[in-house]
Each structure stands twice: as C-alpha cells, then as structure tokens.
C-alpha cells in the first residue's frame, strides 16, 4: 500500500527583492528497515512560489519491496506454449522475467504446452508458483503424470 503526503513550508524570512536565495530540503523515510533519502537544492526569489516533488522517493521505497521473478520453460521440439491463455513464441529452454512482484507473496501462472507425443496432440497444463527474486522451472519434456508419480 502506497501513501504519500504533502508538506507545505512557509517558514521563510522576508526575502529582499531582486536577490536569489538558496535552500536545501531533504526528505527521508524508512521502509522495511531500509532508509531512503532525497535532497533538493532550490533557488528562491521574493514573491515566487515553488513546489518540491518528493513522490519519487516514495516510489523507490515501495519498489524496494518488489522484485521480478522468472519463469523458465523447457519445451520439446515443435511444442506450442501459452501462459495464462496468451500464446508465447518459445522453443527449447527459455526464461521469461515476470513483472515486479511483492516480496513474500506467492503468485501463479497457468502454463500450457501443446505437443505431439506418440503421434497424438497432447495438451499439458500446469499451474506454477512464482515469487520475487526466484526462478521457477517448468519442464514439459517430462509428462506431468510422470512428475506426480515420481514424488
């Protein structure tokens, strides 16, 4: 969950007209034991209003709790692959990165390979879990029934 706030700073002394003044602002936050900081130096003149945007700092902190995972798929020659019902151009052994995933949560994909086995078209569908920073491998060169009985 993201949360941002707006801080209005009005504690400037009366500024002399025609002169430029420099101010340094620093924002800091902690998330998951990590410290995030951003510093901005601004130039100000009397009668002018400036806004500083530190939302990037909040986004960086939120992204620190995420990381992509990866899904490696091993296919027999000529197999057709779909991931979550979307056709994917793949052959042999290929690794696909996931979008950023929240650390500590499990996500799943439905992966299906259609291939020829013993002269018949066979569809092998598997639900696989992926997680941030980890690689999950799905090997369609071994039938799912053989994997289940080998456990």
Order of helices and strands: EEHEEEEEEEH
**Count of runs of 4 or more consecutive helical residues:** 2
**What CATH first level of the largest domain would be assigned?**
Mainly Beta
Mean pLDDT, to the nearest integer, reads 84
**What is the CATH T-level topology of the largest domain?**
Immunoglobulin-like
pLDDT below 50 for ≥5 consecutive residues: which ranges? none
Biggest β-sheet description: 4 strands, antiparallel
- The span between the termini is 39 Å
Q: Could you explain how this protein is built, in words?
A:
By secondary structure, the protein is mainly beta. The protein has two domains: 1-64, no CATH class; 66-149, Immunoglobulin-like. It contains two helices and nine strands; from the N terminus they run E-E-H-E-E-E-E-E-E-E-H. It has helices spanning 55-63, 144-149; strands spanning 20-31, 34-45, 66-74, 80-83, 86-88, 93-102, 107-117, 120-130, 135-139. It has a four-stranded antiparallel beta sheet with strand order 5-4-7-8, with no helix packed on it. A hairpin with a 2-residue loop joins strand 7 and strand 8. The protein is rod-shaped, with a radius of gyration of 26 Å. The mean pLDDT is 84.
What are its keywords?
about 150 residues, mainly beta, Immunoglobulin-like, 2 domains, three-stranded mixed sheet, rod-shaped
């Amino acid at each position: 969950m993201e949360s941002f706030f707006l801080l209005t700073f009005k504690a400037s002394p009366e500024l002399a007209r025609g002169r430029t003044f420099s101010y340094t602002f620093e924002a800091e936050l902690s998330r998951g034991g990590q410290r995030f900081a951003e510093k901005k130096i601004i130039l100000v003149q009397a009668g002018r209003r400036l806004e500083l945007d530190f939302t990037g700092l909040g986004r960086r902190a939120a992204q620190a709790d995420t990381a992509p995972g990866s899904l490696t798929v091993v296919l027999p020659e000529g197999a057709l692959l779909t991931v979550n019902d979307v056709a994917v151009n793949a052959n042999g052994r290929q690794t696909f990165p996931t979008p950023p995933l929240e650390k500590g949560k499990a996500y799943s994909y439905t992966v299906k390979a259609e291939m020829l086995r013993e002269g018949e078209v066979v569809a092998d569908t598997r639900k696989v879990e992926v997680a941030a920073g980890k690689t999950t491998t799905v090997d369609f060169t071994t039938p799912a029934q053989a994997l289940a009985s080998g456990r």
